[in-house]
Design brief:
Layout (H helix, E strand, L loop, with lengths): L1 H16 L5 H24 L13 H24 L7 E8 L3 E4 L1 E6 L14 E6 L1 E3 L5 E3 L1 E5 L2 E9 L5 H15 L6 E5 L4
Parallel strand pairs: 8-9
Antiparallel strand pairs: 1-8, 2-7, 3-4, 5-6
């Protein structure tokens, strides 16, 4: 009998805890929340963020400064490396570069590898068709898709150091710079630093 009273007490407590919400009301609340969610999504797509559409453009002066910074950084790194070579001593370096920064663009490629003989004994050459991938912005402007950049090539290096008159030191410096920059040793000049 005590068990029945406990069960009835539990049922009474459960009835009091349940919310007095009918099924139809619950469906209406879910529909209203759904409509509000769609409305918020629509509203957020109408409002542009502050950074969206901001274009980064590099003027000619900024590009030249970037190339000059690249040359200076390269000169400093090479100078530190050469100065650490046994016998080099105090070192001054000058690096010359050729060209500018080049953008690498994403492209669709269609390569036809057919080669056939025509009746007039001429060969058809392989043909290659490349089309840049263009991105259209919301404002209607178009821009090619950049996938990377190549820095300018090093044309030559001049090294003036205290140990430049020693053939062994000079050869080590040329070998190290040629390996680091992937340039021929003929584009590297090593000279002895004067006392003045």
């Amino acid at each position: 009998m005590a068990d029945r009273e406990d069960i009835r007490a539990d049922e009474d407590t459960e009835r009091r805890i349940r919310l007095p919400v009918k099924r139809d009301t619950l469906v209406k609340i879910v529909v209203i929340i759904g409509i509000l969610g769609v409305g918020l999504i629509f509203f957020s797509s109408m409002v542009k963020s502050r950074n969206e559409g901001a274009e980064i453009s590099i003027s000619g002066n900024d590009l030249m400064q970037s190339i000059e910074e690249y040359r200076i950084d390269l000169t400093q790194e090479l100078g530190n490396m050469v100065a650490s070579i046994d016998g080099a001593g105090r070192t001054k370096l000058m690096v010359t570069i050729d060209g500018t920064v080049k953008n690498i663009y994403a492209a669709d490629e269609d390569i036809s590898g057919r080669q056939s003989r025509k009746s007039d004994d001429t060969d058809d050459q392989n043909s290659e068709k490349r089309t840049c991938i263009v991105i259209r912005r919301r404002d209607g402007s178009e821009e090619a898709l950049t996938v990377g950049q190549t820095m300018p090539k090093v044309r030559g290096v001049l090294v003036v150091c205290e140990g430049g008159g020693d053939a062994r030191v000079s050869a080590e410096i040329k070998s190290a710079i040629a390996a680091a920059l992937n340039i021929p040793e003929s584009h590297i000049c090593v000279s002895r630093m004067g006392s003045g």
